[in-house]
Every structure is written in structure tokens, then in C-alpha cells.
Fold these 2 entries.
Entry 1:
Amino acid sequence: MKIIQITDTHLSSLKPQFEENWKPLVAWIDSLGPDLVVHTGDLTVDGADFEEDLVHSRELLRDLQYPTLCVPGNHDVGDVPGTRQPIDGERLSRWRRIIGPDRWAHDLGEWRLIGLNSLIIGSGSSEEDEQLAWLENTLRTREGRRVLVFKHKPLFIEDPDEGESGYWGLRPEPRLQLLALFAANGVELVASGHLHRARIVDRAPFRCVWGLSSGFVVGPMVHMPYGDALLGAAVHTLGATVESRIVPLDTLRPIVLDDVLHEVYPPAPVKGALS
Ligand SMILES: [Fe+2]
Ligand SMILES: [Fe+2]
């Protein structure tokens, strides 16, 4: 059983700066012929504010000839309260209407794949409570299936016991809750995106994989000492063990966000300033 994990494609018809990497990515996926493709979020440049980005990305996803599952990223549905684009009912329902459910369970033989909406984790919302109850039930009723989890934000950056990691990881309290829940239920792999860096960590009770973006890398504008700034995808081969492979793709153009940040993600206008 072969799963290709793609992530952080940041597609948009309004801001197509990363679009040229989509077709070569699809060609590479076709050359491998996976059983399933999982997109771990930031499908769009700004689906959180522009419905067109979600509609356009949905059209491009149709290029994939394989069953495909997606979880949302912060650029698709917004982020936790207190951020520039807080997730809300409107953003969430737009994702659900255009792309599909923001959390899901998918059984493949002896495997149960679980997709989570990581942008509500730590929000204190009723959506978060509902997702946690759903997750506990989905794990409890797995009937011996082996479990893989996919979500946009990584559980931790440096260490499972770290404090607040701000923009990058989950908040400490829900992180520890999920770590305990995953460990108690024999989860074998937690795969995420968001960092635009490739990394495999086997230190936790389960393997954590940071999927590498197929859209762009982030240059020195962000100090991130962990993982590798590569473009490509990850391949998870399910057998007696889960084998995870980072696959850099030299058919993708190594676009660096730093060079186009002012066009794609300009700073938000200051309230009250003259426009
Ligand atoms: Fe991203
Ligand atoms: Fe992200």
C-alpha cells in the first residue's frame, strides 16, 4: 500500500506564483501510481478569504487520477483565535462545501487513516470539542486497525514537551492531550505540513513526518533550525512497518517565498491608516 503525501501547494488563480509546480508534481505522482494521495493542507494561497482559490484548487485536484483526501491548512480556513485570519463558521463551511470534510476517517484494509483539522485545535471552540470526541470514538472503534494521522500543523517543533511554539506548532495543552491519546491507541505515524521543511522524527512514541511543500521553500526570512528546505513530496509505504521516504523533486522550480512574499502575502493594512 503506497500513500503519497503532498502538502502546501498554495494554489491560486488570483496569485499563480506557485502554480507552475503543480503539473510536474502530478506527472511524478502518475509515475508512481499510488493507492492514495493525501494533501496535508495549505492547498490554496488564500482560501481563507477568497472562495475563488478553493474553487480553482478543487479543479486542479481533479488532475489526480487516484483517490485523494485533504485536510485544511491555515491559508485555507484561517487559524486559531488571535491570529490575522481566525477560523470561523463562514471559513469552515466554505471549505466543507467546496473541498469536503475538514476531518475524516478512511479505512484501507488493515489501516485506518484519520485526517484532523489542526486549525481548531487550541481554539476552545465547540468545533474543537466535537472533533476531539469524534477522534476518541474513531480511535476506540478501530477494531484492531493500525492508525495513521494526517493534519496540517505538526504536533511539536523541537520537543514534545516544549512550550508555546506560536505560529508553527500546536498549543502545549492540546498537544500533550493528543500525544497521550495517540500513544495510548498505538498510532504509528503522524504526518503534517505547514513548515515547508522535510523532516522525519522517530523520537516520539510514533513517527512524525513533516511533509515537504510542493509549492515553495522558505528562505532565511524565517529562522527554522529543524528539517530541510526541500521541494517535493513524501511517500509512506504500509507493510509490516510504515516506511516513510522524503522525495525531493528536481522537476519542481525551487521558488523561494522570500522573493515573492510582497506579491503573494503582503502585510495586512494597518487599521485607520490612509489607503
Ligand atoms: Fe504553507
Ligand atoms: Fe500552513
Entry 2:
Amino acid sequence: MDKPVLQVIVASTRPGRAGRAVAEWVHGKAVSSGLFEVELVDLAEVRLPFLDEPHHPRLKQYVNAHTKEWSATVDRADAYVFVTPEYNHSYPGVLKNALDYLHHEWQHKPAGFVSYGGVSGGTRAVAALRHVVSTLKMVPLMEGVIIPFVPQHLGEDGTLRPSDVMDASADAMLGELARYSGVLGAMRQPVA
Ligand SMILES: Cc1cc2nc3c(=O)[nH]c(=O)nc-3n(C[C@H](O)[C@H](O)[C@H](O)COP(=O)(O)O)c2cc1C
């Protein structure tokens, strides 16, 4: 049987961001787990404009090539990991824009969160994000990774130096993502 496709979605886009290093660490862990086909989806590379579709996304009447491409990308996943910083006690607007573009593509798939920031480790960002992913009918997982004071976890080469807790949390999250993606696949079958 084919492995489920897991997308690791990088929510921060600014030059000098920590997000890409955090995402590459998660991506490596997901590949090593052997549980998934893993894709890194970097919103800095996707480069969506502010939502510019004339119709509600539930109608799937996309007119723009960038939306059709984004739809095809998100659609092929069976599970997501959102790698998000905390910006002003929430998650980046770039991620909200990327979520708002689509509707059916997100549904009935599990979502894990890897958050980082200052003392809160991005937990306020994830609290806000859970609400939105639930509205899009994703299933937000309890297991996730919290990285407080993220600069302290970046090596001189810019790669992430995880603590034991971060490693164990990522393993737990990936295990649950695999379990949920298997079960929720049935939810995405057409109703007879
Ligand atoms: C616009 C902005 C707002 C921020 N707001 C918060 C915040 O509310 N809480 C927090 O813990 N860190 C906050 N920070 C610090 C970031 O979490 C930290 O700089 C992190 O590295 C940002 O992720 P990035 O490097 O991937 O962009 C903020 C940073 C920026 C740029």
C-alpha cells in the first residue's frame, strides 16, 4: 500500500526566519520515521498573492493559475504539519491567506503543529490556528512540538538543535499523524 503523503508547511516567509530550519528538522524526522511520503511546502516559495478569487472556495471555481496549483498541492496530501512562529500572539497572516484560498482540499485530514517563539513557544499561535483548521474540517492533534526561545536552539550553521523533549514530542506527533491519516482516508471517500 502507498504511504500517506505528509506535507510540512512552513508558515513564516521573512528573510532570516527561523521557520525554515525548524521545518527542515521536522521534515528529516518525518522522512526517517518511514511512515510517510514527505513534502516540504514553503509558503515563501508558493508566493500566493492576497486572496484574489471571485468565488467562495467551496465552489472550487478557481480562475487563477496560482490557485489551481495551490489546490493541486494541498489536495494530494493526507496529513499536514504546520510549522508556525508566534507573531503578536497569533500565527502569520501569510498562513491564514494560504488556508483561506481553499476549502475541500483541507477537509478530513489530521493537522499537527510545530510552534516556536519566545517564552510561550508559539502556543498562542497554535491556539488561534486550531480554531481555523477545525473550521476547515481538519482534525487538529493534541500531540505537537513547542519550541520556546527558538534562537537558543539554532546552531552556528543555522540548523535546529533539538532537545530530547522536542525529539520525543515530534515522534509522538508523527505517530498520531500516521494513525489519523489512515482512518480519515475513509472519510474522504465519496458517500454511496
Ligand atoms: C512581527 C513579529 C511579531 C512577534 N510576536 C511575537 C509574539 O507575540 N510572541 C512571541 O513569543 N514571539 C514573537 N515574535 C518573535 C518570534 O516568535 C521569533 O522572532 C521567531 O523567530 C519568528 O519566526 P521566524 O523567524 O520564522 O519569522 C515576533 C516576531 C515578529 C517578527
